[in-house]
Amino acid sequence: MQRELRQQVSALEASGEPLQRIAVALSGGKDSTVALHLVREWAAQRRLELVALAIDEGIAGYRAPALECARRGCDALGVELRISSYRDLVGMGLDELLQAQPPAGSPCSPCGILRRRALNLAAREVGVDALVLGHNLDDCAQTVLMNHARGDVARLQRMAPHLHRQPGMVPRLLPLRRIPEQEVYLLALLQGWEFHTGDCPHAAAAQRNLFRDLLLQLEQAQPGTRHGLLRGMDRMRESLEAPQSLARCPTCGEPAGGAGECQFCRRFGVFAV
Known about the structure:
Blueprint: H1 2-13, E1 21-25, H2 30-46, E2 49-56, H3 63-77, E3 80-85, H4 86-90, H5 94-100, H6 108-125, E4 130-132, H7 137-150, H8 153-158, E5 172-173, H9 181-191, H10 208-221, H11 225-239, E6 247-248, E7 255-256, H12 263-268
Parallel strand pairs: 1-2, 1-4, 2-3, 4-5
Antiparallel strand pairs: 6-7
């Protein structure tokens, strides 16, 4: 993990100033909990400031116990925890929002848009140079496969880890991206690190579930598929030019992946606080 993190940090620092303060996006689940513990050790070696950022989506019966795990973990490690919420962004939690504006597809789509916005705003507010996410090998390989299925090369270029700085966007680092989900889970158990084990009540409707099942079948039939997808993406990105600078949303001024309004304003502008 530390080797992967060193490589990502070195590439990022080559495009700007050295990192001085970093954040870990902490949900209280196994992946972000493992990331917090390992990054804390690495940050201490480099004498970097570390803060944890959590997002309260407003999902009844699910987020509250996860945040309690996150809070206890941060207290034990002596790491500051900052909590933001969807209510701060749109005046209501996800459960209320889904009733006010039922999505055409999976609830995970609007949730993802809100989470990305909330994390980026929180990371900028606390003044960090990079944001660590706990995505494991399975998560990353699924995302690569989903983007390939859509033929979305631009999104593949923009995927974390971010090796180039973009105005208004705090770069993301993925130290666990080559570690299978089962190994992350096993490490947390062996170390005795407390983490939340509950499942989001909306997760069953996620489009990602199809790609998770497909990838597991591919991995069983052809071991190494997950790592192969990541290697292929890395090589493709090396052969392409650096991604174009993100546009600015004409409505809110935040970074946008394409021309016109950003996804947040298109979908939630009427609710924005």
